[in-house]
Request: fold
Amino acid sequence: MLAGGFLAGCSVLSLLASAHLAREPEGVSPAARGEEGAEEGEPPAASSSSQPHLIFILADDQGFRDVGYHGSEIRTPTLDKLAAEGVKLENYYVQPMCTPSRSQFITGKYQIHTGLQHSVIRPTQPNCLPLDNATLPQKLKEVGYSTHMVGKWHLGFYRRECMPTQRGFDSFFGSLLGSGDYYTHYKCDSPRMCGYDLYENDNAAWEHDNGMYSTQMYTQRVQHILASHNPRKPIFLYIAYQAVHSPLQAPGKYYERYRSINNINRRRYAAMLACLDEAIHNVTFALKKYGYYNNSVIIYSSDNGGQPTAGGNNWPLRGSKGSYWEGGIRAVGFVHSPLLRNKGSVCTELIHITDWFPTLITLAEGQIDEDTQLDGYDVWETLSEGRRSPRVDILHNIDPIYTKAKNGSWAAGFGIWNTAIQSAIRVKHWKLLTGNPGYSDWVPPQSFSNVGSSRWHNERVSWTAGKTVWLFNITADPYERVDLSRKYPEVVKQLLRRLSQFNKTAVPVRYPPKDPRSNPNFNGGVWGPWFKEDERKKKPNKKAADKQKQNKTKKKSNRKKGPSVDCLVGG
Reply:
């Protein structure tokens, strides 16, 4: 079925890009650059390959309002210009946290189909993106792409097989964890559980431990990759910036223009975003300089909504990062490419982060195996030509182990669904939430105007006692202010049945307990793989063997005595 009508686009105003020129990496031979002599605004001729260069830029924790063309006081001239010349995605959804969005981008599958339904992968967990899932870089390598990742991984690393270079990337430069210091690249997960987190492929990048700000360091690496690669051969660049995730840190010069922002967290956040905007200008300039731009597709996305307590703002949307309200899952996003047919347009069709997997593989002239069960759709014609989206629904998630809503019940879900379970689904115009959807306030921009606790002029929600089901017409009410669950019980039932259908296809949740062997102190002070494959093949030690022998003896003696307790109870 074709998707229904969707939200109108936001303002199409854009600002001129700032003129911060990218510095050419040293030691790069002219022959490696492709065509030379390109000046900004005069890119070299497109490469000879029919396969486009694919550049996916993922920002971290950028709020929905926090881009110039959404009305922010934070200036983002590069993002505004690229979006204005491309296609703005104004009905675009991601997941409410880091790992879920990244896993869905790289596999084209919902969380319920990879076992990553709950929270994020913690540094100490023996967990990673399941190895039996084909990844986007693996599929692109099959059709001749050079694949490179720069930035934040956050898809697990307890085994070497989980590392980015083992999941399809020719090279990796970045961090494995979800956050860390922007300058020292250290991360403490708990007291006495601290380590270094900067990697070059499969090894700690100690030689880069020179106090450079990560946004700038990652940009320099991207420039070096582009300068070294032959632009006549297709390249896939996944640039996952750490910014603007906490801790809130930025080089001093970026604070100057935001002295008027009194709220310290908002001011720091603004400085970080200004630096990120400049970095993307430098990446775009490098694409032009080294001969990639004319045959490139640049996609920009945030991984989830902003966190108001860490400076982010999602106004006028409800909620924040970590919630299934629109403020947690509706993202800033756009596509910029000379290959687009409808440049300078706004796409209001339904798009989800899982859609990039089939879309990019199709653009790359790759193949998707017939038996691969994807949740994403090829949406290139929707983006480029303005056609209707093939997508009519999104399963935002079903998390069976998240804290249950106290008043949820099967009765509240008409016997179709237990409304104590955290879940959210979108079908055409309708959105349904059950359980505990997360932080639910609206945080207007004025909340950041004063210092101290008085700054929180939130619109507080008065919860109705026992409420565990919400229904909204997102097309008419994108701000989720009018709950229609009591007015349209039949629509509620339809969406609950759809949730139940999705749930039947879910795989078990992968959320193992902490493994003490993960401590960086056991690994040379570095966060990294700790699980050794041969450990599973080791024979049990003497104590374990003796205990096992004792258990067997007990079982034999029990059988001699007569029926077990279970048998007696069941009699």
In short: The chain has eleven helices and 18 strands. Confidence is low (pLDDT under 50) at residues 1-42, 451-456, 551-571.
